[in-house]
Amino acid sequence: MSTITSRLPSRVSGRALPRALGGIGVVNGLLGAALIGAAVAAYFVVAGTTTTAAPVRTATVQRGVVLSTISATGSLQAAEQLNVGFATAGTITAVDVKTGERVKRGQALGRVDSTSARQALEQADASLASAQAQYEQTLTGETAQQRGQDALSVTQAKESFATSKATAAQDAKQSAASVANARRALRTDQGQEKVDLYQQKQDQATFPTALAAQQAVTVDKAALAAAQATQQADQQGQNSTVEGDQSTLASAQSQLYDDQQTQLSLQHKLNVDKQNGAPAATINADNNALDAIGAQISADNRAVSNAQSTLSSAQSSVSSADSVAVSQANTKLTNDQASLTALQNDAKAIQGDEAKLAADRQSLASVRLSASMTTARDKQSVAASELSLRTTRASVATKQAPPTAAALMAARGSVVNAQISAANARKALAQTTLRAPISGTVAAVNGTVGTVTAGGGSSASSSAASSSSSASGSGSGSSSGFVTLTGLSGMQLVAGFAETDTAKLRAGQPATVTVDALPSEELAAHVIAVAGIATTSSSVVTYNVTFVLDRTEPGIKPGMTANVDVVVAEADNVLHVPTAAVRGSGSSASVTVLQNAKQVSVPVVAGLQGDSSTAILSGLKNNETIVLPTVSLATSSGGTGGTTTTGSTGGGFRGGGGGAAFFGGGLGG
Q: What is the DSSP string of 225-293?
């Protein structure tokens, strides 16, 4: 038997204590309350102006039931008609009743498409399974496969660290080699500059500067031009002599040629005369003529030779001094030009050396900067890999360490949240099937398969209150709802609930009804309809909820005022403490535990917060002593009246929308 069932009127429940006070009557309860009030008043009168700090108040952690209830007040009315509708909108997939059919409480009336609800439930169940698996993993620690993965992660981090160090060492070698090469190139070019400077110094032995050499070359060119002009003038003056000698030579050569031709003619004549047998006188005359012409030819040869000698002498006598002067001027010009070229080449070489040295210095600076940046980058990489290794080891150590209480509480809190989500998803899936909240006859079916119903829940009306319900916007009416039920039996109670409480109500929930006219009677009831339209009065928003009494008592009449209590949540067989002792909520909650006369704050996972106590899912043990908030009382004496300031006690009675209830766990200290 569940706690909710046990709270029905078959026996007196703990929620009814303010009315029943454990079986004593209401009158006795009122008398007791009056006595308590008188005692408190006497205390203030006697105490005068004092401020008293109460001793440490404690409570004991106990195992039991935590209930959360909501209450409201309404009026009874005779049942006549009930418009039953789906809680949420959807496409109708089945109509299970027809007009005129008699249905029983709990019978299926119709269904809407449950695809989304089923998917939501599957997701909620998957989340619950995941949360439970995470809780089990937190509780039991890592598996062998996970430990192997952890070892692999550590190995990979070690290898990355070693690789980064090896890379740093290799980069350091390469950087050192690059710097050494740059320095070597700088020293080589510095040596070449020294050689070129030495050569320039040697070349400056003739001329100190290229400008001086250029000036000397200019002078040399002028001297050469003057020598060449003198030579040319001397040659022009001697040309006439040479021409006369050439004419004499040509004349002598012409005479020689004529005489040689004459000699040939005479020789031919001699030969012809001899052949013809000319007389000796003729032959002798021919020979004499040949001898004479031979003598003439000898003279001609001497004249030609003399003319040639004279011409050669004239030609060779063209001023050798001029040629020497020209040659010397040309030689000096050549030497001075060579000196100028050498000085110019030296300047270019030194300029080139300086450019090379500048480039070498820049290259050396660049190599050094690159080496510095590489070293810094490698240090950063090594530090990062070392930090990664340490982080991996720490992470592995953390994962392989036993679970902490906080981790277990957080995991347990996730399971509780997932359980709540799964329960809500099951509730939503169950609501896709509309069931009759009470027995009756089907008067109308407002929907067919394939159409979309607007949802909004159920609403009720009676002959006595139909007009007022309609006027207040309760949502009742013959046209609303999927199925309209008539021929209802028993009494109904319509009560207005706050909008935050309405969300906790659903059709079929059990409730306990008490009638002011019969204070000793508790009547079982259940929810049959929750209005979808709010009622606003004095800026207070409420929703009308209709209950049907499971049984009636003689003397109950329509219009009577009645109170209804509904259990909206319960946690069975759980550890619980007074709600006032809990700070925070869920896995972020904590309580103060009394340990060896010392107050110690302990983190806990808080579950359901009931009317007077809160379930503790983990963090506490049964029978532990927890500390409640302190109470301080202050009164002012010497006047006509006094003031009382009371801190949160966390104990005693608690009223309000949740009804009155006692804390689970006795007060001590």
A: HHHHHHHHHHHHHHHHHHHHHHHHHHHHHHHHHHHHHHHHHHHHHHHHHHHHT--HHHHHHHHHHHHHH
pLDDT score, position 231: 79
> How far is Cα 432 from Cα 249, in angstroms, rounded to an integer?
151
Count other Cβ atoms within 10 Å, centred on residue 377.
13
Contact 10, 1 (CB under 8 A): no
Q: Are 137 and 399 in contact (CB under 8 A)?
A: no
Rounded CA gap, 296 and 277, in Å? 28
The pTM score is: 0.42
Q: Which two tokens stand for residue 149?
A: 């993965």
Distances (CA, A) of 391 to 158, 167, 381, 382: 11, 21, 15, 14
Query: Is there a contact between 498 and 545 (Cβ–Cβ < 8 Å)?
Result: no
Is 169 in the same domain as 123? no
Q: How far is CA 603 from CA 296, 337, 609, in A?
A: 159, 104, 16
For residue 6, being part of any structural domain is answered with no
Structural domain ending residue among the three candidates 401, 419, 454: 401
User: Residue 455, by phi and psi: left (phi above 0), alpha (psi -120 to 50) or beta?
Assistant: left
Rounded CA gap, 583 and 629, in Å?
Answer: 11
Say if residue 234 is in the same domain as residue 380: yes
The three-state secondary structure class of 519 is strand
Which residues, other chains included, contact 36 with Cβ-Cβ below 8 Å and sequence gap of 6+? none
Q: Which residues form the domain of 132?
A: 114-141+402-431
Q: Are residues 333 and 412 in the same domain?
A: no
Only one residue has tokens 């000319």, namely: 278
Contact between 397 and 226 under an 8 Å Cβ cutoff? The reply is no
**Secondary structure string (H, E, C) spanning 16-44:** HHHHHCCCCCHHHHHHHHHHHHHHHHHHH
Name the nearest CA neighbour of 60 among 582, 611, 578: 578
The pLDDT value given to residue 349 = 92
Q: Is residue 481 a contact partner of residue 108, using CB atoms and an 8 Å limit?
A: no
**Minimal CA–CA distance to 157: which of 480, 385, 498, 470?**
385
- Asked if residue 39 belongs to a domain, the reply is no
In terms of domains, do 259 and 170 share one? yes
In the chain, the number of structural domains is 2
Closest CA to 574 of 60, 63, 61: 63
Question: Closest Cα partner for 112 from 433, 326, 348?
Answer: 433
Closest among 447, 639, 473 to 541, alpha carbons compared:
473
The residue assigned the tokens 């070392």 is 386
List beta partners, residue 577. Answer: 614
The pLDDT assigned to 579 comes to 93
Q: Check whether residue 134 and residue 180 sit in a common domain.
A: no
Pairing mode, strands 510-515 and 440-445: unpaired
Judge if 425 and 311 occupy the same domain: no
- 263 belongs to a structural domain: yes
Same domain, 173 and 243: yes
Q: Is residue 654 part of a domain?
A: no
Q: Are 577 and 614 in contact (CB under 8 A)?
A: yes
Tell me the sheet residues that pair with 615: 576
Q: How much of the chain, in percent, has pLDDT values that exceed 90? A: 35
Candidates 564, 571, 495, 561; CA nearest to 531 is 495
- Which tens digits make up the pLDDT trace of 226-278? 888 887 887 777 777 777 778 888 888 888 889 889 988 888 888 898 888 88
> Which of 350, 385, 401 is a domain's end point?
401
Q: Do 258 and 363 share a structural domain? A: yes
